[in-house]
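Record pair follows.
FIRST:
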Amino acid sequence: MRALTISVFALLSGGLVVLDLLGRRPGSRLSTAGRLLRSALHNRPALVLVVLGWWWFGWHFIVSGG
């Protein structure tokens, strides 16, 4: 189960990197990851979700020692 969870996070992270690179192309209509995060942080419910997501990630992958 742990390998599945890590694989899903790796796929999501890779997808985010690809979308960010596509957003950086000249004339692209996609937003970069930084712009999306910046706009999300101006919305309180989204800010809470970002903080809770980082907390969960840190607890499961950093504090627990992998």
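SECOND:
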Amino acid sequence: MLTDKSSRVQIICEAGVNHNGSLARALDLVDAAAEAGADVVKFQTFKAENLVTAAAPKAAYQDRNAPEYRSQYEMLKALELDLPAHRALKERADARRIQFLSTPFDSASVRLLTSEMGMKVLKVSSGDLTNAPLLLQMAQTGVDLILSTGMATLEEIEDALGVIAFGYLGGGSPGPGVFRAALGSAAGRDILARKVVLLHCTSDYPARLEDVNLRAMDTLVQHFGLPIGYSDHTEGIPISIAAAARGARVIEKHMTLDRNLPGPDHKASLEPAEFAAMVAGIRAVEPALGDGKKAPTKAEMSTRQVARKAIVAAADIAVGTVFSEHNLVTKRAGGGMAPMLFWNLLGRPATRAYRPDDLVLEALDG
């Protein structure tokens, strides 16, 4: 699994198709991702003819960011990487000690990544969350899956997880009923918890801040109980850092070597120095997350002794004098009886004499 039991956030540098079809630029992206401190560098694996029809329109953001292409097919055909290129990228990633990852968009690409390259983790795009045959194929390979949930409802995510659980468990003919049964079984829930990460995502490039909805990560945790991350398509770095602070175990963010390059994703990507700043911000946040238990830290104990108040005498108090609101007060005194016991003393006789500012130390048994 990409995530581990530690509190370390796994940071995926989404190189995607920002190589513009150039292997040399793709290799430079691997280097830049490693130098920026990413844990993973991710690409996209597809054959255009297996992914889109010749007449498929471009998305609005693709029209905005890549007007030079007349169709989605034409754009994607220019962005393909073949098997030798994938092998070269994997070798470069290994040499740079960064994990190689890719998103397959068609059945042949799943086979390329798993059978030809031996990949143990695959990323599933938001666009394929409802693509049950492809989800089933990926799960049947036994690899771990990182599932983006852009554009999805809870019901669609649930359906997708049912397909994946069935694919992992095996047995029987696929169909809606057995998918639901697999998701509802203890074995299905257990294998999903071990092998699937959900990424909250807004599928717009760049995504508007008002569309981010980071609180949806909480909903995904409550509903599915799986490790959660965030795939960030906003401009800049604050939202990725905020998502990490909110508990994301995985952060995915696009990187480009030059935001002014032509292509669909460059405008929503960070340049290398910005990506490095994002990594530094996330790493600064991680130790501040803690374990969630509310208790004083070791460092606070000495401060507590000084900052908290105790019950002290407000005036001379003779033995037998009844304690009242007039002869007791609370002040910082470096120890003594907690002010929460103030009312327990009222009406009781003093067992010893006190001068002003003396700590009041009385036994309250009985």
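COMMENT: The two ends are 58 Å apart (CA to CA).
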